[in-house]
Amino acid sequence: MAPRSRDAAGLQGTVGTRGSVECLALTAPGLGPLLREELWERAGAEQVGRVENDGRSDVVPFSIPAGRSLPRLRLAEEVLAQVGWARGELPLPCLVARLWDDARFLRTLTALPSRRRGRSHTFRVVTRLTSERRFLRTQFRDRLVGAILRSRPRWRQADPARFELWALQTGRATYRLGLRLDEGPGARPVERPGALRPALAAALVRLAGRPGRPLLDPCCGSGTVVGEALAVGLKAIGADRSWDGIWAARLNLPARTCLVAADATHLPFPRHALGAVVTNLPFGRRYRVAGEHAAWLARAFAEFLRVVEPGGRIVLLHPHSSAFELGVLSEHRGRLRWRRPVALLGLPATIWVFDTPGPLDRG
Ligand SMILES: C[S@@+](CC[C@H](N)C(=O)[O-])C[C@H]1O[C@@H](n2cnc3c(N)ncnc32)[C@H](O)[C@@H]1O
């Protein structure tokens, strides 16, 4: 990672005072390091802190120059402007006083590129604690609501609200309060059971690098991976054995997207025609594969190696199971370049990145 990185402790709640806005980006657990890279590369961040975790999400503090518009971060599920920060085992009233300061809240609003319009004075407080050892989450929320109403007596609580304030415990004794800015991607025309979270799909695409030839998702379902690849300017193709998947992808993706009905173990592409295979493989009860799982994985992986060009990548999302050990790792461990555990619908899974044999490899 770039040496410009600075400890998150240095990114405090000093919004707008040095001509910068401090923000928090939230993503699925395990994706924080990739989100940091995106913040450096695409958001024009001045500083990016270390990855923290609030028990449900990885949280990455960062700062951008005041007034700068943030591009849509593909790997973030939420973006907040930080309005307060505290560290230490403080009594609850002191902690709340550190987090909520009306003048600082106003400075945050002023520093944001687009001011929130609308006259309604509604707000909502969301709290996440990694431990209720010192106080309960509801006590934390009620104290914050009380502090806000003392400085803003005309405000009232509502859901949805004009201002959503998220108070997160992101370390053993680290707390951050942020104003929610980005509600993430809106709903797609068709949602299909088992669809990937877009941030996870964006992470898989990122790990494929920037192949010149098309990227293929051979088990594309509703098209989340293909959509993320197209969004960052890559050529992408989707395939699925099920017509139901192809139909969902057709409705979710731009009209001219190439989609084919095919089995992942018999792909209708010539040898080395593609730059990368990136996919969320079927596993579990919802999408069963024909026959024994390890044997299916072995056949599918051999097919991916056939269609991807030398020096390309195969990026898979699949739990680290005995079937995966037997079907893929036993033969291809040497090609494994990177792996990272992630949470998929609360269940453990792993992202696996394999290199395909380069022009000088034998065998
Ligand atoms: C976990 S889902 C993929 C979800 C997808 N990433 C999305 O966001 O909607 C797995 C997909 O694999 C497909 N599938 C199952 N067996 C297959 C096979 N032999 N060849 C191709 N696709 C297959 C299923 O139809 C399903 O759409």
Model description:
The structure is a single chain. The protein has helices at 32-42, 92-99, 102-111, 137-151, 198-207, 224-231, 243-252, 293-307, 322-332, and strands at residues 20-27, 47-48, 52-53, 58-65, 78-87, 122-128, 156-157, 163-171, 174-182, 215-217, 236-240, 258-261, 274-280, 308-318, 336-344, 347-355. By secondary structure, it is an alpha/beta fold. The chain folds into 2 domains: 8-182, VC0802-like, CATH 3.30.2130.30; 198-355, 3-Layer(aba) Sandwich (Rossmann fold). Strands 1, 2, 3, 4, 5, 6, 7, 8 and 9 form a 9-stranded mixed sheet that branches. Helix 7 links the parallel strand 11 (236-240) and strand 12 (258-261). Helix 2 (92-99) crosses helix 4, helix 5 packs across helix 6 and helix 8 runs parallel beside helix 9. The radius of gyration is 23 Å and the shape is elongated. S-adenosylmethionine binds next to helix 6. S-adenosylmethionine (SAM) is lined by residues 192, 194-196, 218-219, 221-222, 224-225, 240-242, 245, 263-265, 280, 282, 287, 289.
